[in-house]
Amino acid sequence: MNSQLNENTSDEVLIEKALSGDKSALEFLIIKNQDWIFNVALTFVGDTNEAADLTQEVLIKVITKLENFKQNSSFRTWMYRIIKNHFLNMKRGKHEVNPPTFEQFGHGLDQLPDESLSDYSFEVEEKLLVKEAKISCMKGMLLCLDREQRLIYIIGELFEFPDSVGSEIMEISKENFRVKLHRAKKQLYNFMNHKCGLLNKSNPCRCHRKTAGFIKIGYVDPVELSFQKDVISEINEVIDKKVEAYSNEVLPDYLKLYQEHPFLKCPDKLESIRKLLSTKSIKETFNL
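Request: output the structure for the sequence above.
Response:
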């Protein structure tokens, strides 16, 4: 890979070099943005395998459309608009075939029996299993939002894009973006405040009591721990914080819980990059 390129090389420079036939610049552009796409996809669909497939689908679209990037916005904003169009129009994933309402999701939690993990034998530490159950459950809650709400929440709340950028990505007005974000937050956080015991201790639902049940129904894999594998950091450590202070309008402590979720490395990075660069469309676009 070109020794003159590093993690501080701007996207615009990488794009210019890539379009000039520099394969290393194209590889570096993919590496630089792949983990971001993967983590947005993972939060959107709640499944690591589906998220990996989505990442590759989006990357192919981004790379093959690269010559259309006119620098009227930042590259990441342009890339997220491609993500938005792909995610909102793609075929429904396995967790979206019959997406639950918040009422149905809460009923499912109520029906799941409280059990002690000490009654079972697993090779993985109990605290890791409970953490996996917590993350899985919280990502499942997001699936109760419709696709547009979910993506607006991920962009505007979880990754804290300002409304000026969020509205550009979603191709709606800033006011409309704020209204839709407010509604998504209100639905999600109000549900958590009435059902989840992570912050509201008066609620009966506790992750450690439901973990065994999550394992039995396949929501938690006690071997793979999908949401804790190849962790780069927590989400709150990689985002650019908004300038404005948090609003106390809608339970910001629940946002903190989501931003403590792991930010994961996209699986099979080098293999996927080589696969991308070997495709006919990529070779033709960049004269590789």
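The CA atoms of residues 219 and 230 lie 19 Å apart.
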